[in-house]
Amino acid sequence: MRKTFIISLFISLFSIIGNAQGAVSYKFLEVVDYADKPVAEAKIKIQGGCVGGEVLTNEKGRVDRFPVGYGDCHTDTFNISKDGYYPFTDLFGVIRAIGGSSESEPTKVELLKIPNTKAERQAVEREQLKREFFAAARSGDNVTVRKLIKSGFSPNLTTSELRGIPGFKDVPIIIFAVDSGDGGTVKEFLAAGVKVNKPDEPIKSILIQYLSAYPVQGNFPDTEAGNTARISAYENGAISLIDAGASLEPKYSTTPLMVAAQKFYFRIVKRLIEKGVSVDAQDNYGRTALMHLIDYYKPKERLEIAEFLIKSGAKVNLLTSHVPYSRYDNQSCNTALSIFVQNYDVEMVKLLLANGADVNLTCKGGNTPLNYAKDISQYGIGGDKKEEIIKILEAAGAK
Question: Taking a C-beta distance cutoff of 8 angstroms, is the pair 159, 170 a contact?
Fold first, then answer.
């Protein structure tokens, strides 16, 4: 449980959402060298929220008022640089460690000196290459990843093996790779024998973590053909993870199938079904993969996946007690039909009815699809679909 919690925090470093109001507190950071001596006048560039800017370490190598923000004022990340040293970028959750530091025990980060002598090279170069290995994995630089693996670095390296970097421990480098959204990088690790199905977190949910990443742009041109190739490369990465034995179990209550369906990755949906995942698994709100197919901008893809899920055995008359973020964010139950009525999706309504959706199914005291349709504002979003949906439902026997 502890590791699951830690990894959840770690993941948030790559997708910070600061919708709530926040505040800034000031903590203590110390920059040291290999011999644990302070590095004075190191430049620290802070990024994020309302706390961005640059500061220099003092003669003790310290910043005694390092801003750590919350909510809208979150501190996203920071970089450290100084002539004669390798630059450092926080990819490792150091910002969280700073958040818990005190004046008597500041958070220490080792800045690695660029070697001038043989002794320095022995002490520093491999540590720097480890850091570059993690950075390459995180950025989707599969060429550098391949090069470093061939030079002898383990594809199962973890953050615990990095020297001089506080923050989250025991985080495998493959987590950085899947967060990159680059299928080629993931495949380099798989080819090198990375472990993807350990019984403990976070490996258990590695597929969902990859599916939650944005497909990397990489070298693909910003054209329709380039975007198609980019998505194809991304899907290849997911399929490779599936075929390599990555767990297909849910993370919390969300299954890989739900995420793949919601993002319209049809090839991934097909491979998951081929692997025997439950097409009707439900999340904490009772929603199935079919119910996750809500998107106004991809009607063709949505219908194709919905048809495939139904042909694969998806039940169209399951009830869910609560669908968050719908126009009707209440406790009344919903079916796939009522969900798509609320989202003014005429084609999905037709498809569900053609495949046996009960037009009057609801729970005790719940709204029927027709009630939801009649409550659509004629002048608001979806108002132009209101009468059409009502006619379709009434023709199907709605009461």
Answer: yes
CA dihedral 369, 373, 375, 378 (to 10 degrees): 170
Rounded to 10°, the helix 224-243/183-191 angle is 30
Give the span between the Cα atoms of 227 and 217, in whole angstroms: 8
**Helix ranges restricted to H, 73-141:** 94-99, 118-139
CATH 1.25.40 applies to domain 118-247: yes
Encoded amino acid at 345, one letter: D
Return the H-helix or E-strand segment holding 367.
none
pLDDT tens-digit readout, 252-306: 889 999 999 999 999 999 999 999 999 999 998 899 999 999 876 788 899 999 9
Residue scoring higher pLDDT (48 or 371): 371
* Residue range 2-114, CATH number: 2.60.40.1120
Q: Domain segments of the chain: what residues?
A: 2-114, 118-247, 316-399
Mean pLDDT value across the chain: 86
Does residue 26 sit in helix, strand or coil? Answer: strand
The DSSP H or E segment spanning 369 is helix 369-374
The backbone torsions φ and ψ at residue 85, rounded to the nearest 5 degrees and listed phi first, read -125, 150
pTM of the model: 0.85
Q: What's the burial of 177, exposed, middle or buried (CB within 10 Å: 0-12/13-18/19+)?
A: buried
Gap between the Cα atoms of 293 and 278, Å rounded: 16
Rg (CA), the chain: 25
Number of Cβ within 10 Å of residue 183's Cβ equals 28
Asked, as a colleague might, if the bond just before 202 is cis with ω within 30 of 0, I would say yes
- Among residues 232, 230, 288, 285, which one has the least CA distance to residue 255? 288
CATH 1.20.120.140 fits domain 316-399: no
At 353, give phi and psi (nearest 5°).
-65, -40
| Torsion region of 63: left, alpha or beta (phi above 0 gives left; psi -120 to 50 gives alpha) | beta
3-53 pLDDT per residue, tens: 443 444 344 434 333 334 456 788 899 999 988 999 999 999 988 756 668
108 - beta bridge partners? 30
pLDDT > 70: percent of the chain: 87
Task: Characterize the bridge pairing of strands 43-47 and 77-81.
Answer: antiparallel
